[in-house]
Design goal:
Layout: E1 7-11, E2 18-20, H1 22-30, E3 35-36, E4 43-47, H2 51-57, E5 74-78, E6 83-84, E7 88-92, E8 99-109, E9 125-135, H3 146-149, E10 155-163, E11 174-179, E12 184-188, H4 196-204, E13 214-216, E14 225-226, E15 231-236, E16 242-248
Parallel strand pairs: 4-13, 6-10, 7-16
Antiparallel strand pairs: 1-2, 1-3, 1-10, 4-5, 8-9, 8-13, 8-14, 9-10, 11-12, 11-15, 15-16
Keywords: Isomerase, Metal-binding
Pfam family, one: FAA_hydrolase
Protein name: 2-hydroxyhepta-2,4-diene-1,7-dioate isomerase
């Protein structure tokens, strides 16, 4: 069973993650500490789980190639090369297009979950984290392109995993995405079609999730666009926020 007691974070220069209280986590992060991702499993993104995103498709959702609204979760994998931690630098491949700075709730699985029911699904959750699920802006969500979603650093996670016991209702959390100098985009986990427990139940009906895996609730519709030189801050509830910066392609270190 993978289960942080409090707030799990992994400082960049330390070999192992720490399990600390929120006060210590904030103190460490206030000093400008960079972090590694606080998770080690596979990260699965979820598409079209935001009511506004599905509504924005309009009649197109009934036309080819979709033909109907999704009857099961639409998932994609954020492979290992995409994973980055708090205060990472992310390269923007085309500054005219920028990158969509999607902020999502990450559900961290605590033990092997296969065919779990929605009424027991939260028992399989170790905690929650912030996921900056980045992508190159594009129109089609049919067979998501690897080159749009799986570029290096396109999944910034952290800075902490917040233990499940600290989160009374994962389906009622405010999300704020701030791009320095460009205002704040606000959303909520309350607008999702499949809530956390139902999403876990529906996903584990056809595939097994393992301890340490992360299942995102999905990016809210209308997430802002970041361009090279931006500083991005994503907050969920009152948790320690996740920050990263963007640089032009070719400028990554």
């Amino acid at each position: 069973m993978y289960a942080p007691a409090d707030h799990l974070l992994h400082l960049q220069w330390e070999p192992f993650a720490r399990d600390v209280d929120v006060r210590e986590a904030r103190e460490l992060l206030a000093d400008g500490a960079a972090c590694r991702p606080p998770v080690s499993g596979t990260v699965y993104g979820t598409l079209l789980n935001d009511a506004a995103a599905l509504e924005a498709m309009g009649d197109a959702v009934h036309a080819a190639p979709y033909k109907a609204p999704p009857k099961a979760p639409i998932l994609y994998v954020k492979p290992r090369n995409t994973l980055a931690g708090h205060r990472a630098q992310v390269a923007v491949p085309d500054d005219d297009a920028g990158i969509e700075a999607g902020g999502s709730l990450g559900v961290v699985i605590g033990r092997t979950a296969s065919r779990v029911t929605s009424d027991r699904a939260l028992e399989f959750v170790a905690g929650y984290t912030i996921v900056a699920d980045l992508c190159v802006p594009h129109q089609s969500v049919y067979r998501p392109s690897v080159r749009f979603r799986a570029r290096d650093g396109f999944c910034v996670i952290g800075p902490t995993v917040v233990a499940r016991r600290h989160v009374a209702d994962p389906d009622a959390l405010p999300i704020a995405i701030d791009i320095e100098g460009k205002g704040t985009f606000r959303a909520s986990t309350g607008t999702t079609i499949r809530k956390v427990a139902q999403l876990i139940a529906d996903v584990t009906d056809f595939m097994t999730l393992s301890a340490g895996d992360v299942l995102t609730l999905g990016v809210p519709h209308g997430a802002p666009i970041a361009r090279a030189g931006d500083n991005v801050r994503i907050a969920i509830g009152d948790w320690p926020p996740l920050s990263f910066s963007t640089i032009a392609q070719g400028g990554a270190r």
